[in-house]
Amino acid sequence: MDFSYPPEVEQFRKELRAWLAANLTDEVVAAGRRRGRDPATFETLRGWDAALADAGWGAVSWPQEYGGRGATVLEQLAYAEETIHARAPVPLNVIGMNNIAPAIMQFGTDSQKRELLPRMVRADDIWCQGMSEPEAGSDLASLRTRAVLDGDEYVVNGQKIWTSLGHRADWCQLYVRTDLGAPKHKGISCLIVDMALAGIEARPLVTLNGDADFAEVFFNDVRVPADALLGPLNGGWNVATTTLSHERAGAARLYAQLEVQLQDLVTDLTDCEVDGRPVLEDSAMLRRLGEVAVRIKYLEVLCQRSISATLHGGDALGSASLAKSVWAEAGQELAALAFDVLGSNRRWSDRRLTSRSLTIAGGTTQINKSVTATRVLGLPRQ
To answer: Phi first, then psi: what are they for 113, rounded to 5°?
Structure first.
């Protein structure tokens, strides 16, 4: 692995670090920890996203014609490390910017690119992704939400679930079935849907920690203009699985996030005692902290292998899938350790609850292990 940073990347890092030091406030950091639990917090985060975008730091991986910097892989790596260690919030439109925007760049019309992308990066519009359904979660090809062409409109009926920010979204990248007679992978289309259209109902879903970051969304005879199609008719599977990604160094977020969380935990444990003895002098606690630290370092190596493969034309998918599984398990272990000692602490009790989703979100552990088996170990699919 070659991770020597050339002078231009270090200059990029220096400029970013200076901008963050001048603009990232304690209020914004605190809002990032709370995310969108109340309207005021949500608007603080929206304002931060706009400030990033206006300064040219909102989507560094995007091509310059769409408001980005066309950052190299190593510049993206530096960006991830600096923003995470500065504790800058992730964008409100993180799914939109990482997943939806690349699809619009590749498949969208000139009008869609021009009108939608600048507002997305500033969080002027909030986006959601309509994929999962009650009977089609990881198996996207089994989706049942239908869109039937009627004149110059599609009439959409169906339901989506676990839709991030679905109840706050202005736009949805919606996957629908448009050909019932085609093989299930080939009868899917993608629509860009205005969430203000009549017939759409979004109901917030409250999770274990009391947050409402997800929603179930119902479509009842929703009439969507035919020109809202993203990509070719019945070509939605290609839109969903496109390998185009402008966040190629996104793996850096996995280990950097856990490094920051471990630092926070050690800080919170500094003044903590059990039975009148400092926790950080307890051999069992030190062993558990050490085990987590080693797993995070192992995760860093895995992520760097994935990034190195990207740099040198190798297969990054296998190591990235393995890294995601290790990240999820290490994150759950860290949260469990913190909760065992600091259970009454709101931050760590919340993290303990939300950590249960880590082995599901972004690809289940089972799916990622299957990818690792076939792409890394060379095992047969059957």
So the answer is: -65, -45
Its domain, for residue 215, covers 127-241
End-to-end CA distance of the chain: 32
Query: Domain check: are 74 and 143 in the same one?
Result: no
Judge whether 232 and 179 are in contact, CB under 8 Å: no
Q: Is 67 left (phi over 0), alpha (psi -120 to 50) or beta?
A: left
Does residue 204 share a domain with residue 157?
Answer: yes
Using CA atoms, how far residue 90 sits from 12, 41, 87, 115, 316, in Å, is 19, 13, 9, 23, 23
Say whether both 189 and 253 belong to one domain.
no
List the single range of 161-170, 186-195, 309-318 with lowest mean pLDDT: 309-318
Instruction: Choose the catalytic residue: 75, 216, 247, 300.
Output: 247
- CATH number for position 163: 2.40.110.10
Reported confidence tier of residue 6, pLDDT bands at 50, 70, 90: confident
pLDDT tens readout for residues 274-307: 888 899 999 999 999 999 999 999 998 888 887 8
C-alpha Rg value of the chain to the nearest Å? 22
57 and 136, same domain (yes or no): no
Same domain for 290 and 313, yes or no, is: yes
User: Residue 24 domain-assigned?
Assistant: yes
Q: Structural domain tally of the chain?
A: 3
- 128-169, pLDDT tens digit by residue? 999 999 987 667 788 999 999 999 999 999 999 989 999 999
Report DSSP state, residue 182: S
Distances (CA, A) of 252 to 84, 93, 130, 334, 373: 9, 19, 27, 18, 23
φ, ψ (nearest 5 deg) of residue 226: -65, -25
Which percentage of the chain shows pLDDT scores above 90?
A: 57
Q: Would residue 247 show up in a list of annotated catalytic residues for this protein?
A: yes
DSSP 124-142: SS-EEEE--BTTBSS-GGG
Structure tokens at 64: 């310059």
Q: Which residues pair with 139 in a beta bridge?
A: none
Q: Minimal CA–CA distance to 255: which of 297, 309, 307?
A: 297
